[in-house]
Amino acid sequence: MQRKSNAQILSSGVLDIGTATPGLFTTTQNGQGQIAALNEDNTVNTNINGIARGSVIQLFATGQGFIPNAPPDGTPASGLLRTPELPRVIIGSGFVPESDVLYSGLAPGFVGLWQINVRIPTSVPPGSNTDVVVTMRSIPSNQPEGGGGVIRTVIAVK
């Protein structure tokens, strides 16, 4: 920490930063339950407004890790800035093929918001509580860092 008036160093230290800590935003704002997601027609995905299989859903998250050429802290992304690698996405009980993870990167116009566009596999059964897990650099979104069980995040599929 540095005092602004005279640039005096008040403290310093080392902070361990993980390579990624994926977490999906939810409508409950507690990281569990219905994911804050947009259907292909840009309507909000809810248990009564599910997404059709074969359509593309936009998931919103945080914890994607370092993105080369990202804007300075506090500055919104002005265009598409992709993550260096694609996350693995599970919808229902199986992994989505990598070819159906269409975009992973900063959401244009937002500060630090991770957007993942995924095509819903036609093999996913319809349901209002379809599990979704995002894994980035082998770190899953459904397991809290300090332990304590599994986080369940869902979307509605029709």
Structure notes:
There is one protein chain. This protein has 158 residues and is mainly β. Helix content is 0%, strand content 32%. It has one domain. The chain has no helices and 12 strands. Strands 1, 3, 4, 5, 8 and 9 form a 6-stranded antiparallel beta sheet that branches. Strands 2, 6, 7, 10, 11 and 12 form a 6-stranded mixed beta sheet that branches.
Key structural traits:
158 residues; 12 strands; mainly beta; single chain
Briefly characterize the structure.
The chain has 158 residues and is mainly beta. The chain has strands at residues 23-24, 33-34, 37-38, 56-62, 81-82, 88-91, 94-95, 101-106, 114-119, 127-136, 139-140, 153-157.
